[in-house]
Amino acid sequence: MFIRAIVMMLLSAWVLDAPQATSYREVFVHRGPGVTFYESGKLYPGVPVNIIERNRVGNWVHITRTGDTGIVYLDGWVMTGYLNLDEGFRLSQIPVNTEVADADPNNADYKVTADLYAVPVISEVSRAMQGVYRYGQALGNNSAVVTKVGDSVSTNPLYLNPMSRDDYDLGPYDFLEDTIKYFGPSLATGSVASRIGMTTYVVFDPLWADKELCQPAETPLACEYRIKRPSIAMILFGPNDVRHMTDAEFAVQIRMIVEQSLDQGIIPVLSTFSVHPDDGLWWQAINFNLRLTEIATEYEVPLINFWAAARILPEYGLDEDHIHIANSGFPNIKFSTGHEAWYGTSLQNLLAIRMLDEIRLTLNMQ
Amino acid sequence: MRILLLILATIFLLTACATAQTSDPADVVERYLDAKIKGDQTVLQELLCLPMEADLPREAASFATVTDARIEDMQCEHTEGTDIVQCTGQIIATYGTEDTTFDLASYRVVQEDGEWKWCGEAG
Fold first, then answer.
1. Contacting residues of B for A211, CB less than 8 Å apart
2. Which of B58, B68, B98, B107 would best serve as a mutation to test chain A binding (most A beta carbons within 10 A)?
3. Which residue among A272, A318, B74, B107 is least packed, with the fewest CB closer than 10 Å?
4. Quick check: A201 and B95 CB within 8 A?
5. How many beta-carbon pairs below 8 A join chains A and B?
6. Which residues lie closer than 8 Å to A318 by C-beta, 6 or more apart?
7. Which residues of A touch B106 (CB under 8 A)?
8. Which domains does chain A have, with CATH numbers?
9. What is the CATH number of the domain that holds B95?
10. What is the per-residue pLDDT across A187-232, written as a single tens digit (0 to 9) for each?
11. Does residue A210 contact residue A128 with C-beta atoms inside 8 Å?
């Protein structure tokens, strides 16, 4: 009883001191940090709320609205990007809730989508990856080098490459700065293993390799790994492959990419991809994404569940063609405008940088 | 005279048969590349060497994501006494509205049952 009273007192004190914000539009408040959680109320523009805590990425915050008598009128989670935040507000100032799930799979429409929602948006870094990293360092890989492997969604120059620019504007995501500084310079150049039209098949086809940079008979993947000697490869396939192969064939190819990366001491970061429900290949894409999550679990490699995180974005973060990701229009990394709640590329960059941050901190990269 | 003509005719026929049987390595490579951009699995299977049989799905799907794939200025030449066919020219394909190019290179050919087969890029 005494302990409970102390906890309540501390919580009340924190709520009183908690940063405040308002929403600039009418938004639903959810019972957890994701679109699958039931709605617990609505937040109207201009109504002040307290920011209590955040999720692991920082793109959802737990808010409350408490009356003068202590009655809680509103309690739930909203996307950080929906809020008007004080200029000095920093997500590093508020507690991180590491226990809260990213989704409530019980509320998914189908069993298969429930399975996909159940996968965290940002995975934890396994002990196995510590071994891979050490092995890569022994081979001479560059700790601060990240590269991209994938199709046109990956090739997009607004995906990760802006990390190399000095004019990043992190807004509330101040805690990502060290990671941007650490990996940013390595993303100033393109990747020969990331090209428009590329698939999990042709990343192993020497015909697709850049003849000026690659050796005769060298595959694009082998060439990129030889040139850059990265410690991390951000692997992004699916939107092209889903139109030309089965999920079983896709899984074989992804396994080959993962194994070649691990063999060279490179941590492969997999990512699910967004798909529009109007796309005739919706179910095929869901199966592709499930294969990606299964392979990530099997090899204990990091995975970004972009599919799940992007469900709340307009058009699921996709461009008009429903294949590519919608860009915010900014050439730099810019999170001060809340665009990660609106544009696929902004969210994609946020999740990728947060995943790199998790890897860097876990593996003590410096 | 009649015997000489008979001998010459026999030599001519034997030479013709031999040529048809072994095919022309440069021609095999050109046909292979043409089939590859078209995704013609039947022709690819016919011209692909045995050690690369498992790569057939990849070879057939290589240009599946692009449209209007075409080969420009292709010239292939077999260096006598080697297993190398050197090609110049390029493949141009369109993805969305953007053209992407692939430079042709040197390719390895092998003889299987007297027929030349395409066997990947020359290392």
1. 103, 105
2. B58
3. B74
4. no
5. 61
6. A274, A275, A276, A324, A325, A326, A344
7. 216
8. 2-100 (2.30.30.40), 111-362 (3.40.50.1110)
9. 3.10.450.100
10. 999 999 999 999 999 999 999 999 999 999 999 999 999 999 999 9
11. no
CA distance A24 to A44: 8
Distance from CA of A239 to the nearest CA of B (A): 10
Q: Which of A196, A217, A245 sits opposite B61 (nearest CB)?
A: A245
User: Tell me, what's the pLDDT at A69?
Assistant: 86
pLDDT bracket for residue B11 (50, 70, 90): low
Can you read off the two tokens belonging to residue A16? Answer: 């009183």
Look at residue B113 and tell me if it is in a domain: yes
**Would strands A142-150 and A49-54 be described as parallel, antiparallel, or unpaired?**
unpaired
Is B12 inside any structural domain? Answer: no
Q: B1 lies in a domain? A: no
Q: Model confidence over B13-54: pLDDT tens digits? A: 445 444 444 589 999 999 999 999 999 999 999 999 999 999
Rounded to two decimals, the pTM is 0.91
**Interface check A189 vs B, CB under 8 A:** no
Strand partners, A45: A23
Structure tokens belonging to residue A307: 């599919």
Number of H helices, E strands in chain A: 10, 11
Instruction: Find which of A156, A196, A203, A325 to mutate to test the B interface (most B CBs within 10 Å of its CB).
Output: A196
Q: Give how many domains chain B has, as a whole number.
A: 1
DSSP secondary structure, A280-330, as one string? TTHHHHHHHHHHHHHHHHHHT--EE-HHHHGGGSGGGGB-TTSSSBPP-S-
Does the beta carbon of A157 lie under 8 angstroms from any beta carbon of chain B?
A: no
